[in-house]
Write a structure and sequence with these properties.
There is one protein chain. This protein has 267 residues and is α/β, with parallel strands linked by helices. It has one domain: Rossmann fold. It has eight helices and nine strands. It has helices at 15-23, 56-62, 81-102, 136-155, 176-179, 183-195, 235-241, 250-253, and strands at 4-10, 28-35, 46-50, 68-71, 106-112, 158-164, 166-167, 180-181, 201-206. The strands form two sheets. Strands 3-2-1-4-5-6-9 form a seven-stranded parallel sheet, with helices on both faces. It has a two-stranded parallel ribbon with strand order 7-8. The protein starts with a strand and ends in a 14-residue tail after the last helix. 45% of the residues are buried. The model has no long low-confidence stretch (mean pLDDT 97). Bound molecules: 1,4-dihydronicotinamide adenine dinucleotide (NAI) and D-galactaro-1,5-lactone. The site of D-galactaro-1,5-lactone has 8 residues, from loops.
């Protein structure tokens, strides 16, 4: 059943955007899909808008007549400062200005575990911790969470900042036994974020019901997210295909894994 008249989905040509394009179409009468990359032709209830989110005027136009925004578009891993600045920081500001000026009710967007990537593995955290970004990319997600809080407090634009762990069809390394978010659980989480009657600005960890946990979602219980999948079913396969990790290795010492020990991208 359609919950919204029109939902805008950015990053719709990317991995997660392609999934959500298909799976959340039923939540809106019209799904406006957008990316800077080619999106192909529009299907039944779609509008297609090719747009770079660093273009303020284009984003202002794209966010017109929209009830909710699902913002997945942007640089999705560590990159040069300039690329992160334009796509994630300027892009994020443009999306929120579009939301504010066009009266969009809610923005649901993909933050990342790399906003808190420097917490040590033995410290389980909730949504109240001080951010500890691990990269230029992680800093851009902290900026996003800051602007989401600001636009709620000052302008009444609601947000859900989803600190996604590792969202892939299946876990591909041992770290993901802890950080994995399955595709069905991402779809369920996105549906809950759309349906929830009031979210203010909620920070929620996007992670499946894995046996090993780094993140506690008690502060976002009102969203009603109940993940079903568990990375543990892949353990035997991953242990057979990947070497035993050194416990001192930064790859497992920090929540952000390898991102926490990457050199500065621009060096
Ligand atoms: P992706 O790289 O497959 O998709 C990102 C999309 O954003 C691409 O289609 C790209 O063309 C588009 N894009 C990039 N810069 C843009 C710009 N300036 N204007 C308009 N579109 C632009 O990444 P993926 O995996 O689908 O991730 C989606 C979102 O989720 C990203 O924001 C990423 O940071 C976040 N995320 C993903 C995780 C994962 O495990 N897949 C984990 C944590 C966060
Ligand atoms: C992210 O933020 C990235 O978008 C994704 O490609 C993975 O690297 C993920 O984090 C992760 O931490 O596994």
């Amino acid at each position: 059943m359609a919950k919204c008249n029109r939902i805008l989905l950015t990053g719709a040509a990317g991995a997660l955007g392609t999934l959500l394009r298909k799976e959340i179409a039923h939540m809106a009468t019209t799904l406006r899909v957008s990316d800077k990359a080619d999106l192909g032709s529009a299907s039944a209830n779609e509008e297609v808008v090719q747009c770079d989110v660093s273009d303020a005027a284009a984003v202002m136009e794209m966010t017109r007549d929209v009830d909710m925004i699902i913002h997945m578009g942007g640089v999705s891993r560590e990159g040069s400062w300039e690329s992160v600045l334009q796509s994630n920081i300027v892009g994020f500001y443009n999306v929120y200005e579009g939301a504010r000026k066009n009266g969009v009710k809610r923005v649901i967007w993909a933050s990342s575990n790399h906003a808190i990537g420097f917490y040590p593995r033995e410290q389980v955290i909730d949504a109240s911790v001080t951010p500890r970004p691990d990269t230029n990319y992680g800093v851009s997600k902290v900026f996003g969470e800051g602007i989401a809080q600001y636009y709620w407090d000052k302008y009444g634009v609601e947000s859900v900042s989803i600190r996604i762990g590792s969202c892939f069809p299946e876990p591909v390394d041992r770290r993901m036994l802890t950080t994995w978010l399955s595709y069905p659980d991402l779809v369920h989480l996105t549906e809950r974020c759309i349906m929830s009657p009031r979210v203010a600005h909620t920070v929620i960890y996007g992670v499946s019901n894995n046996d090993e946990k780094l993140w506690d979602n008690w502060m976002a219980a009102h969203i009603g997210f109940h993940p079903k999948d568990n990375a543990e079913i892949f353990r035997a396969k991953l242990e057979a295909s990947t070497p035993e990790p050194d416990p001192k290795s930064p790859f497992i010492a920090a929540h952000g894994g390898a991102f926490a020990s990457m050199p500065h991208f621009d060096d």
